[in-house]
Amino acid sequence: MPPKEKVESTEQVLQAVILADSFDERFQPITLETARCLLPLCNVPLISYTFEFLAVAGVQEVFVFCCSHSDKVKAFVKKYEKSSNMKINTIVSQELMSVGDAMRELDAKQLIDTDFILVTGDVVSNMKLDQVLEEHRARRQADKSAIMTMVLKKASPQHRSRSVGDGSLFVLDQGSKECLHYQPVKAFKSTREDRRMTMNMEIFDKHPEIQLRNDLIDCQVDICSVEVPALFTENFDYQDIRADFVHGILTSDLLGKTIHFHEVSDVYAARVRSTQMYDAVSKDIISRWTFPMVPDSNLQVGDCYEYRRGLVYKEKSVVLSRTCVVEEKVVIGANTQIAERAVLSNCVIGKNCIIGANVKIDNAYIWDNVVIKDNCVVQHSIIANDAVLEQGVTINKGCLISFKVTVGANTTVPAYSRLTALAEGEDDDSDAELISDPAVVGATGRGRSFTEAEGSDDEDEDEDPKNKQVNMLAFDMSELLLATKEQEDSASDFESEASDLEEDQISPEEELDREVAATLDRAFQDGHDVDIAVLELNTLRMATFSNFKEMRKRVIPGVLKHIDPAARPGSGKTAKEILNRWGSLVGKMIHDEEDQLDGAYVLQRACATLYQDVAQAQRVFAPALRYFYDEDILEEDAILEWYHSEKSQQGTDVERQLREVAVPMIQYLEQSESEESDDDDEDEDEDSE
Amino acid sequence: MSKNNELVDDLVAKLKRRQLVGSSAVAHATLKLLIVVISKNNWSTCNQLLNVVKSVGQRLVQANPTELAVGNIVRRVLHVIREEFREAESSASTNKNQSEFHAAPLTTSSSMYNLLGETNSIPDDNVQYPSSLRSNIIQEIREIKDELENIYDSIKNQASLQIHSNEIIMTIGRSKTVEEFLKMAAVKRKFQVLVAESAPSYSGQDMAVELSKAGIETTVIPDSAVFAVMSRVNKVILGTHAVLANGGLVAISGTHMMAAAAKHHSIPVVVCTGLYKLSPLYPYDEDSFNVTFNPDSVLGFEEGDLIDKVTVTNPYYDYVSPDFVNLFITNQGGHPPSYLYRLIVENYDPNDHTFDL
């Protein structure tokens, strides 16, 4: 029986898993209406490139995981399957929120029984996987713990097809082709952890030579073994395949699994992760870096693009007027008409579009059935299907104009606008009316501007907003850095609106006030030990970089506050009772004579401010001073110095009256001191004798 | 039928993905497929069969329009089908003067007479064809196959007529035909070969290795040195990807430069090619049959800062106009460019230049 199994395993079909959902919102509002993987890239749906890539690799069976807009994906896949020789299964699950969920689903359904290729539905690549597969299999034969092979591509740091916000740091062993450590790198490192990397030192014991690489494009093409989905199930909190899974596996001592890599250099591989990458990958396709996946290969059935000089791709049925200018790097889809004197450069125009006279289109991506009337200017933007730009519209860079939006005549759409024709808060079935915003789309327009918050925001809350921005279409890094300053200036406006954000905006002093008060309240309420309260306060002091003086200023009133001058003995609220219980807390904040003096001042002021009535204040102050003296928290030198100092005699009336309360005590102290000194003298005399 | 479609789909996909490239390989695959299509499909009349073959041909040609050999083979097959039907018809309608009828269409199809006279060269659909027709057609197509297989033999046999002792021959790129040709010549003669390295594919280097293995004195020169050494060369022997109707070549990039240098020095340019590379299509646009490859080999993709700012193109082929070429050596003998129109008429039917149904 076993030999037969072996025969089967060599003949096993090559399987691949495509994660068709992106699990993020970078293409919104366009992705509110269709799936990310169906967006046209150079007039071919994105996922077609992935299918093609897998077909070339010899994949026979594909599982497509989709969540949002699954019906559309399903319909497309069904159509596509007919013209391909792969078996494509669509798996729909509405609960998919991350890569991890998809992998767990995969494990639950037991669809995979051999090593498989895991890709996302937005990979564009012309690499041949046979060598990678061979390497992976050979490694598996030798060592069962090698569970995954990542395919990485080398590229210079400023490369356009490197996603700006999605950098990664790899620690690699070139000898064994093993990945030893992984860390994602953000474009803007706002927190201290972002700027640091922690690595297990044991790596150095096992691997005499390692490389730390930041020059690799990670397009998330992985050859995974069947253990990978199972490991996702075991570690149910893994979401991301890189930040959670790879990082987790490599840092775990228990699992003992290894992850390998395969570095490619002379092939193309990129992921359309963001609008910025959409732009870069489109340009790479037009510039033929993805050859043979170029428009004139006509990957899609029915396409008939021809290549012309200057990287111009034109369908046969395009109507170009005599005076229109088609400059470099242009793709024009079937049945599109370009009117007189229109100028097109660096752009992709879909099927059945009508481009009016004198229109200027630069760097833009115009999808199917778009009508652009005379004298429009479109710069570096994406315009989705069925949108209409009336006469004289100007679209500035970085705009996303979603499906069926109409921009009224002579409107200027500001840079980085996102327009949608979906009604606000519209789900799939609600029939809310679209309220067009004339300020945005003009008087005759149809659509409104889209704000990010509408979508369920499950991005990390601590994420720097700048990291999101760098992924945007046409984003200029220099502009971003300039804008940051403005943003910080305008932050105060923000504060009043968003109460959640208040925390970040208050001064550190106020924050300390609040924290100390909260700590003390907790301690009083829950009846903590003094030691615990002290520990908490000390942690707080260190966390806020403040000193004991600051703490005294807050702790002494904090304790005194709880004294009820009118309370009867036995109620637990008299000055004596409170001080017996919590007085030593103050003691922990006082260390040397200077502290004592300061403590006395603080005590005086605290009593004066806490209790308006002089009698009440005196009733608190006297026992407090007494207590502190008895407990040696305030020594007599400090109290005397306080009493005689000018500072204590100034201040408000209440403060001065409080000083008077201390008079009997001072007299007593002075007396005892002189007695003491007499004693001392006597002693000295004795000694000298 | 579905099996057929699967085979067609498979070949279409391979052509699209460029998993199958090169005139010879493509021609063989096309012919093999067409034999299956003709033998497995149901057809009873000439038009039916022509349409079946045409529709397959159209798909194959669209899959990769730059592999002209695909279209050429389909046209050859269509031509054979017409001939066979004509023959069958003539034998069915009359048994006498068979040979006369048989010859008639060939001579008239290309003459002015044909334009004005009867045009129904396609046989009537009502004729009852002999049952041997199918096998006859297959037989004829197999002959094309044999021709393809023996192409190198018939070309290389002319080698000793073209290459003389102590000559210096220049060539570019790697062409199997030229390689066989030179190797054959080396059996009898002693001569020297200069091979331009043919950047960025550097296929000239592989060619040089092959030639030197066969004992030919071979030198690799950079492409830029072609003009400089041309004055010492006796003959330029070129391979080609395709030959167009006007005698122009679609050949590896650098060929145009070499041919122009040869013309400047009045050095004869000889092109070795099988007839299956001869296409009845006319180059209205120089770029129309060119392929632009991944620019990676010209400027590495790693140079991220640069590739944003420049446009890099990497055309694989050159168009060489017919006035640069002195002689074509085909499997049917040597022909000047001006004679190619005649070969086209003999091998292809004028109705088949496009595959519109």
UniProtKB/TrEMBL annotation, chain A:
It comes from the Eukaryota. Keywords: Cytoplasm, Initiation factor, Protein biosynthesis. Belongs to the eIF-2B gamma/epsilon subunits family. It comes from Linnemannia gamsii. Residues 454-464, 489-510, 672-689 have a biased composition (Acidic residues). InterPro entries: ARM-type_fold, eIF-2B_epsilon_N, eIF2B_epsilon, LbH_EIF2B3/5, NTP_transferase_dom, Nucleotide-diphossugar_trans, Trimer_LpxA-like_sf, W2_domain. SUPFAM superfamilies: ARM repeat, Nucleotide-diphospho-sugar transferases, Trimeric LpxA-like enzymes. This is Translation initiation factor eIF2B subunit epsilon. The lineage of its organism: Eukaryota, Fungi, Fungi incertae sedis, Mucoromycota, Mortierellomycotina.
TrEMBL record, chain B:
Pfam families: IF-2B. The lineage of its organism: Eukaryota, Fungi, Fungi incertae sedis, Mucoromycota, Mortierellomycotina. GO terms for cellular component: cytosol; eukaryotic translation initiation factor 2B complex. It comes from Linnemannia gamsii. Keywords: Cytoplasm, Initiation factor, Protein biosynthesis. This is Translation initiation factor eIF2B subunit beta. Component of the translation initiation factor 2B (eIF2B) complex which is a heterodecamer of two sets of five different subunits: alpha, beta, gamma, delta and epsilon. Subunits alpha, beta and delta comprise a regulatory subcomplex and subunits epsilon and gamma comprise a catalytic subcomplex. Within the complex, the hexameric regulatory complex resides at the center, with the two heterodimeric catalytic subcomplexes bound on opposite sides. It is found in: Cytoplasm, Cytosol. One of its GO terms (molecular function) is guanyl-nucleotide exchange factor activity. Belongs to the eIF-2B alpha/beta/delta subunits family.
